[in-house]
Backbone:
């Protein structure tokens, strides 16, 4: 028995086992490099061809569209604005793991591994074809190119994956690693090139050439008393590059304003369409409107105020002739996103618009260029359709917007909210005369009063900045004689209808969070 054990672990067997493990490791590395090369080729070709989206992002969009609503809400709550980068990185990681597995499989069964490679590419093409803007033939051609590149790299690397033996056969490890590294690097460069060629740079130049017309009904001048300019306080108008962005698009849709048009259709007497130039030629209004995401937690930053410019929805609907029973307006995006809200809101709220401008410039790409919907008083998930393609009038129960089947309420009025910006949660401030400051919003109703409570003391009325419009948030502040120690600060607002912000804490789902914003501050003795 001892002789048999010794024989089973002989130096020759140990050498073969080590070579087998080394070959398996090289097979896995070959698979990862092949996937990187394939993805780079696909991204570069998609950028060159034009009407084909990134297959990686297409898969990501398919994941977003198919996951249960509770999981999507949990991801937003946990990751916030990092949810999209995390999803893309996760897809790339899964691709790398699949590549490693296929590389190991291909060492013995190359044809089945190559077939699996093609099946994965086919899944990516199928996901891309879910986008109505994707041309079928170029998408298939791009997917096929990715398969050819990936399989060719995999085949070449596997031929190099046999470790060099004592008699000099096989490939030197350094040469194998160099080839695999080069294939991976070229894949990364190809992917980066594809992103640059995807039209974003050209679109940025087209946007920069746009000149917004002077509005027929401009917003009034901003009095100095409307912006308190307290250090740490959110500005009255959030700069475009700092304005929150929440949407379902993994990559900003590339929409050429020269070929873009928007339809007004559905339950209307006179359907029509508008080009971008025609939209710019219509009479415009300006309005200061605070937008809020339904996923904004109490005290969160998924809310912002801007001066918007565009064409009133009311005028477009009057031109179309809304039919009796058309109780819902559905906004449709070029990427398939939909959001619906009551038609009466579009008719009654004069500042509801098809917006083309934001804070004095054409809409940024990330915020809906060339046109989007802005509807005061409603959370974005039911109203703020970006990259607008169509306005469709329907009955209330005939169509559900994107988020409704995913567990969100069909109606989404913005709740009265206030937030403490100064002091920041968990910060340490010096004792003595200081200030507590923040913002409060209740679009369409306005803010009449903000109150602040320190620890268990009485509610104190804060000073309000001058109002601009009922749709616009108001800054507020309260002088504070800060004493050393730990303090809990709370705030609540009263809107223009006399309704006081509730202290009942509710989650963001299904129709927005509620409760008083509370921060803890540490005051040090000076």
Residues:
């Amino acid at each position: 028995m001892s002789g048999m054990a010794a024989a089973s672990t002989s130096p020759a067997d140990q050498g073969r086992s080590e070579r087998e493990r080394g070959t398996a490791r090289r097979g896995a590395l070959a698979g990862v490099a092949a996937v990187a090369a394939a993805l780079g080729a696909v991204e570069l070709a998609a950028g060159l061809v034009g009407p084909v989206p990134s297959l990686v992002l297409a898969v990501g969009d398919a994941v977003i569209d198919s996951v249960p609503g509770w999981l999507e809400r949990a991801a937003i709550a946990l990751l916030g604005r990092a949810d999209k980068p995390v999803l893309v990185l996760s897809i790339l990681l899964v691709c790398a793991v699949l590549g490693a597995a296929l590389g190991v499989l291909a060492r013995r069964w190359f044809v089945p591994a190559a077939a699996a490679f093609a099946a994965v590419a086919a899944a990516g093409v199928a996901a891309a074809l879910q986008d109505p803007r994707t041309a079928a033939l170029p998408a298939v051609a791009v997917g096929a190119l990715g398969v050819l590149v990936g399989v060719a790299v995999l085949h070449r690397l596997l031929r190099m994956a046999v470790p060099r033996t004592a008699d000099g056969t096989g490939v030197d490890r350094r040469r194998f690693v160099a080839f695999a590294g080069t294939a991976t690097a070229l894949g990364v460069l190809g992917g980066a090139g594809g992103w640059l060629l995807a039209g974003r740079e050209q679109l940025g130049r087209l946007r920069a050439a746009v000149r917004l017309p002077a509005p027929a009904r401009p917003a009034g001048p901003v009095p100095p008393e409307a912006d308190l300019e307290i250090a740490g306080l959110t500005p009255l108008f959030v700069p475009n590059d700092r304005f929150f962005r929440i949407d379902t698009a993994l990559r900003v849709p590339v929409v050429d304003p020269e070929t873009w048009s928007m339809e007004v259709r559905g339950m209307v007497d006179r359907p029509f369409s508008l080009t971008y130039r025609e939209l710019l030629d219509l009479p415009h209004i300006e309005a200061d409107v605070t937008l809020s995401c339904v996923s904004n937690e109490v005290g969160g930053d998924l809310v912002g105020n801007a001066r918007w410019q565009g064409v009133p929805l009311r005028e477009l609907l009057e031109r179309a002739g809304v039919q009796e029973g058309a109780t819902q307006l559905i906004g449709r995006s070029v990427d398939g996103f939909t959001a619906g809200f009551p038609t009466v809101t579009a008719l009654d709220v004069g500042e509801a618009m098809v917006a083309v401008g934001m804070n004095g410039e054409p809409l940024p790409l990330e915020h809906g260029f060339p046109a989007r919907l802005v509807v005061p008083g409603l959370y974005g998930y039911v109203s703020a359709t970006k990259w607008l393609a169509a306005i469709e009038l329907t009955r209330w129960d005939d169509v559900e917007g994107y988020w409704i089947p995913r567990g969100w309420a069909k109606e989404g009025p913005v709740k009265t909210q206030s937030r403490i910006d100064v002091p920041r949660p968990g910060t340490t401030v010096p004792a003595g005369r200081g200030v507590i400051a923040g913002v409060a919003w209740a679009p369409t109703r306005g803010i009449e009063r903000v109150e602040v409570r320190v620890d268990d003391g009485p509610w104190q009325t804060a000073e309000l900045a001058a109002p601009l419009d009922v749709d616009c948030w108001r800054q507020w502040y309260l002088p504070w004689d800060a004493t050393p120690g730990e303090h809990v600060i709370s705030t609540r607002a009263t809107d223009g209808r006399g309704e006081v912000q509730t202290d009942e804490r509710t989650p963001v789902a299904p129709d927005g969070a509620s409760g008083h914003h509370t921060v803890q501050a540490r005051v040090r003795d000076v």
Observations:
- The chain has three domains: 18-198, 224-406, 417-524.
